[in-house]
Write a structure and sequence with these properties.
This protein has 170 residues and is mainly α. The protein has 8 helices and no strands. Helix 2 packs parallel to helix 4 and helix 5 packs across helix 8. The N and C termini lie far apart (66 Å). InterPro entries: RNA_pol_sigma-70-like (IPR039425), RNA_pol_sigma-70_dom (IPR014284), RNA_pol_sigma70_r2 (IPR007627), RNA_pol_sigma_r2 (IPR013325), RNA_pol_sigma_r3/r4-like (IPR013324), WH-like_DNA-bd_sf (IPR036388).
Length: 170
């Protein structure tokens, strides 16, 4: 019964949260996504909320953190895209598949192959790390301690480095 009451209480704040979300974005779809993700996180962590009359404040903090994390991920991806575009534009060849681009594609293929040879969660975990997820977020995602995540990411990096060095320095 506690869960149902909490759900109903959350729904009462939907309009307020949408108005608060307008502080972060003007895009209606992004506002709806932000509110929905806030509700999902609130439900996930409702056991950490103690019948405090400041539910809206708690929900706003969750929303703000979600927005900040999304912004960081997008800016990280944008930087990656900018770097890729920079290197693509540095290629002066008029051939669509020049040697430089082909080498990069081949290396990306080799990285994918190395990751696919690892246990499935390791490759997925590394890709999520590259996508900008924090160690703490990965720990929650995979249900394992943060130290284990750090260790696995380190091992994956070293494995990639070693195998790519063997292939490309020979």
């Amino acid at each position: 019964m506690k869960d149902k009451a909490f759900n109903n209480q959350l729904l009462e704040y939907q309009k307020i949260l949408k108005n608060l979300a307008k502080r972060f974005t003007k895009d209606q779809e992004a506002i709806n996504d932000l509110v929905q993700e806030t509700f999902i996180r609130a439900l996930k962590y409702m056991d950490q909320f103690f019948n405090n009359p400041r539910v809206v404040s708690w929900l706003f903090v969750i929303m703000r953190n979600i927005y900040i994390n999304q912004y960081k991920r997008l800016s990280y991806q944008q930087n990656y895209d900018d770097i890729s575009l920079y290197y693509y534009n540095q290629n002066t060849s008029t051939e669509p598949y020049s040697e430089d681009i082909s080498d990069k594609r081949m290396m990306l293929g080799d990285i994918s192959k190395i990751l696919s040879d690892m246990p499935s969660t390791h490759g997925e975990m590394f890709n999520n790390y590259i996508d900008g997820y924090k160690y703490r977020e990965l720990s929650e995602m995979y249900g394992i301690p943060e130290g284990t995540i750090k260790s696995r990411i380190h091992i994956i990096r070293k494995t990639l480095q070693k195998r790519l060095n063997m292939k490309y320095s020979a």
